[in-house]
Amino acid sequence: MKKQLTGTFDNVNYLDITAIAQSYHCDIKTLPYVHRILLENLCRQQYWGSSVSDMAVRRMLMSEEDGQNDLSLRVNRIILPDSSGLPVLQDLAALRDAVRCHGGDATKVDTHIPLDIIVDHSVQVDNWGKSTALALNLQREFQRNHERYRFLKWAQQAFKGITIYPPGSGIIHQINLEKIAQVVVTSLHAGDTWAYPDFVIGGDSHTPTVNALGVLGWGVGGIDAEFALLGQGYSFPKPQVIGVRLSGHMHPSVLTTDLALLITERLRSLTLAGAIVEYFGPAVVTLTVPERATIANMAPEYGATCGFFAVDEQSINYLRQTGRDPVHIALVEHYCRSNALWHDATAKTPDYSQIIDIDLSEAVPGLSGPRRPQDRLALPAVRADFRQRLTAPLSEGGFGVSDNVQLQQNAGQLRHGSLVLAAITSCANTANPSVILAAGLLARNAVAKGLSVPDWVKTSLAPGSRVVTLYLAQAGLLPSLESLGFHVVGYGCTTCGGKSGPLVDNIVTQIDIGGLVVASILSGNRNFEGRIHKLIRANYIGSPALVVLYALAGRIDIDLEYEPLGQDSQGDLVYAKDIWPHADEIAALLPLAQNAALFHQVYRSNGSHVEVWDQLDAPVGAHFPWDEHSHYLIEPPFFRHPLGIVYLDILCRSLQQARVLAAFDDSLTTDHISPGGEIPQETPAGEYLIRMGIVPTEFNTYVARRCNFEVMVRATFANIRLKNALVPEIEGGITRHFPDGQTMSIYDAAKTYADEAIGSIILAGEEYGTGSSRDWAAKGPALLGVKAVIAKSFERIHRANLVGMGILPLQFLAGEGWRELGLDGSEQFSFNYIRDALDNGADVSVTARSSKGLITFNVKLLVMTEEEKRVIAAGGIPTRALQRFLTANANTINATAH
């Protein structure tokens, strides 16, 4: 099945997947493009001598109903933000030390796959609304994270194949699109040059953004990334591929963000966990790669592994616009056309598991909120929805405010519904030229009308790419944005990731004294409770233009059609329609953003443009010198488990008299489990840092403290908006200890259960673990002693992360849940047939005992692949990795002796 490309590339080999499919009596045109890429991946490994079997290839071509369909995939590269990259490298450093401690060959612990780390998750909006904000925030970032960044530079010399993009380079997913992604990779094997599809996994859930370019990639936990980096392979269940047919045209007043929110709402209403969405249909060809990226970026929000757009003319155009090598661009097109990977809109529709139709004309300007990205509201509905929620009880999705609602806004005074934060932030939206130019044009029109943003609104602009600032400046729109307070504050994941920074003191005082429900608006992808800012309870997602529009209004409960934004210099009322940009104005400026020279200018230094980064000194050598006085970098405990102990025995014993640590309803996110933003003083993590002599102003964020397990275990289930059904009257990381029923922090309860040698479990509803691919949402529970989570359904990445830490993900049977079964969390639980469930897929039997009697039910063990079964048996990926290195070392010694 080996062939050579013709013409200029006649020395480049590839595997002909059309011929391969035919040899298995399959027509390649019936396969979704995603399955074609996965088929090539498996067959190339087989051709190159890997242990991929013919049966594995046959299963790839079978229907999804086949039960043994886990795929052993060859990953081309891994990409990580600093938030997950630092813990990954910290674990590798600790693994090296553990292998050495056990007498193994520590030099074998190394990276076997190219790794790109983009330092974009540590910048905070400490400064805003002024021309010096960017420089001051970068300076503060280095002050806070000096230790972490020295560790990164040590890792770059200690492990091979690591490329680091320093702070201020841009957001990971945009750099992936604009610079790193190749679409088609070439490499040498056995003396021959081969071409094959780029395939990437990333330690951020929004890695699927790169699917817009025709590159298959998705988010994984850093735990999975560690295993793949170590050359241990990457096992993944064969995905169901659902086709989404896009048709129609967007109304001129609608922006891509509005379409992305429509798609998110529509797809989230389905069950897509573990599935891949593949877009096709007549409207696909009209969407540019940046527009596709805005949609693909939201894949975690609509619940899919990724949202894939196959390679076509738009992909090639984007490669040209971003300054890629013309020879490589020609190779991409020639390879994809030659190997059935070029999207032909006129070809037969592949055999998708399901087809969903979405008409672009259904998209309307709107927001999603106030708590979830799938809760879309057309603009006219925002005002009424917010006001209805004000007095609705918490249990019904409201804010529980008394009937005496203060909605009158006096000069300079806040009230319920005041907008206190407006952020143009996040990856795809702030690098999609059509939506960012729309924001700039709206700002220009507003300034021309004499409008301004009220003083109580914190404004910021954090572009996904440094190219954005260049074309905004060339278009003459940057001064208008700045005059409204939207100065560039950084090139990184800011407000969307919980790094919104402080509000000014008088704003904080008014919110606290008045118990006010204030709002934020951001052009991000997530608005979960407690994520954006601890004092802001209503958070909305919208296009960058709507961020500017609502900032001008200064409140979220405005009817933008009928209520004015203010008055112009003549005293005439100004409405939203008066300053909304026309589609042709946006189109006229788009060529400025498609200039390859801008991308060459930004990326010519390959990301190294920060002098303080280049001058940063760091340790050298193969082993990192841990500092016992550090509160940022503490050697993690995951490789300290005694070897030779059968973990499965311990797990089964611990689940004989287990207690419920916490119980949750639907949509418990990884932000709830492991917060990423500021560290409040009154939480267990804050109290710990104070005991360590660290003042609150130096706490930094949970993200920055991820390499300190003492902080992170105390941060687990510590979100200030957490709603634990064991204490329904309280928000935050509080629970009840049983059997005494005493109220205490979740951390203290977990410690008490551990001291009592009692395993703990979590009860949950639908979509447990939605949100970020946050390792600590599994690492933290593991350190707390959680042995199992029983939920109605799991988000894909978090389920895998739980397995990676030796925690059993268990699913209630259809129609059942903890509330439906009459459980209240006070029971003592016993689990049986765990080994049978691992061996042959049998159900796990659960008995819940309480003073009311016995409740017996079955649950399904969601351990999906053979490798995952081995991981559970070992007690998690860290122990399995250590065992494999020591076994390999012992085998080498034995072979040498003989």
How does this model look, in words?
With 898 residues, the protein is of the alpha/beta class. The chain is built from 33 helices and 32 strands. The protein has a seven-stranded mixed beta barrel, surrounded by five helices. A five-stranded parallel beta sheet has the order 6-5-4-9-10, sandwiched between helices. The longest helix is centred in the last third of the chain and has 21 residues, at 877-897. It is globular and about 80 Å long. The model is unreliable at 892-898 (pLDDT under 50).
Main features:
single chain; 898 residues; alpha/beta; 7-stranded mixed β-barrel; 5-stranded parallel β-sheet; 32 strands
Question: What does this entry show, briefly?
Answer:
This protein is α/β, with parallel strands linked by helices. The chain is globular and about 80 Å long.
- Helix share, percent: 25-40%
Strand order of the largest sheet: 24-27-28-29-32-31-30
Distance between the termini: 40 Å
Oligomer: single chain
- Tally of separate helices: 33
Uncertain residue ranges? 892-898
Q: Which overall shape is indicated by the principal axes computed on the Cα atoms?
A: globular
Q: What topology does this entry show?
A:
Elements: E1 2-4, E2 12-15, H1 17-23, H2 33-47, H3 54-61, E3 70-73, E4 77-81, H4 82-101, E5 115-118, H5 133-144, H6 146-158, E6 162-165, H7 172-180, E7 184-189, E8 192-197, E9 199-202, E10 216-219, H8 222-229, E11 234-237, E12 241-247, H9 256-268, E13 276-280, H10 289-296, H11 299-302, E14 306-308, H12 313-321, H13 326-338, E15 354-359, E16 366-368, E17 376-378, H14 379-391, E18 419-424, H15 433-448, E19 458-461, H16 466-474, H17 478-483, H18 505-514, E20 519-522, E21 538-541, H19 544-553, E22 566-567, E23 573-574, H20 576-579, H21 583-593, H22 596-603, H23 611-614, H24 647-654, E24 658-663, H25 670-673, H26 684-691, H27 709-715, E25 734-737, E26 742-745, H28 746-755, E27 760-763, H29 776-784, E28 786-791, H30 796-804, E29 808-812, E30 828-832, H31 834-840, E31 844-850, E32 853-861, H32 866-874, H33 877-897
Parallel strand pairs: 2-8, 4-5, 4-9, 5-6, 9-10, 12-13, 12-15, 13-14, 18-19, 18-20, 20-21, 24-27, 27-28, 28-29
Antiparallel strand pairs: 1-2, 3-11, 7-8, 16-17, 22-23, 24-30, 25-26, 29-32, 30-31, 31-32
